[in-house]
Amino acid sequence: MEIIKSIYGRKIFLDTAPLIYYIEGNNVYVQKLNELFSVQNHCRFITSVITLSEVLVMPLREGNTRLAKQYESILTQAENIDIYEINIHIAKESARLRAKYTLKTPDAIQLATAQYCSVDYFLTHDLRLKSVSGLNILTLSDL
């Protein structure tokens, strides 16, 4: 609870899992995520097109077009979420991160996008990403 209060008003990169857990109501994290995403905290959320690509996979695989449209709508129309495309700077930084930390391409692009956007925090559920220096990595269990 204290962590959530301390990040109010900050710029937070949203990795894929926190968004999935929020939309699909993950029992373990839904209360913390509801508080984080509440209107009162006035956070600015940043994400990349990689997040959109990843969140759509399962709904499309299962033929759940309603859920796919819900994800797309949230990421492309929410007032406090900015979604970034990959550019030359992000591509080069993601390659550097892959080389240094042996990351998968999507993770490296997410992290490089967060760096490019100068976020205050990177919110993920992937504990492996905590080893990356230069970003304040928060996992859902930190909230």
Topology:
Layout: H1 2-6, E1 11-14, H2 16-23, H3 30-36, E2 44-48, H4 49-61, H5 65-77, E3 81-84, H6 88-101, H7 105-116, E4 121-124, E5 137-139
Parallel strand pairs: 1-2, 1-4, 2-3, 4-5
Helix pairs in contact: 2-4, 4-5, 6-7
Characterization of this structure:
- The chain is α/β, with parallel strands linked by helices and 143 residues long.
- The protein has a single domain, classed as 5'-nuclease (Rossmann fold), CATH 3.40.50.
- Helices cover 50% and strands 14% of the residues.
- It has 7 helices and 5 strands; from the N terminus they run αβααβααβααββ.
- The chain has a 5-stranded parallel sheet.
- The longest helix has 14 residues.
- The N and C termini lie close together (6 Å).
- The mean pLDDT is 93.
Relevant terms:
7 helices, 14% strand, 143 residues, 5 strands, Rossmann fold, five-stranded parallel β-sheet
Strand line-up of the largest beta sheet: 3-2-1-4-5
According to CATH, the homologous superfamily is: 5'-nuclease
Mean pLDDT: 93
Number of strands: 5
Element string (H = helix, E = strand): HEHHEHHEHHEE
Protein structure class: alpha/beta
Range of helix content: 40-55%
Number of domains: 1
From the 3D coordinates, which CATH architecture would you assign?
3-Layer(aba) Sandwich
Nutshell version of this structure?
The protein is an alpha/beta fold and 143 residues long. Helix content is 50%, strand content 14%. The protein has a single domain, classed as 5'-nuclease (Rossmann fold), CATH 3.40.50.
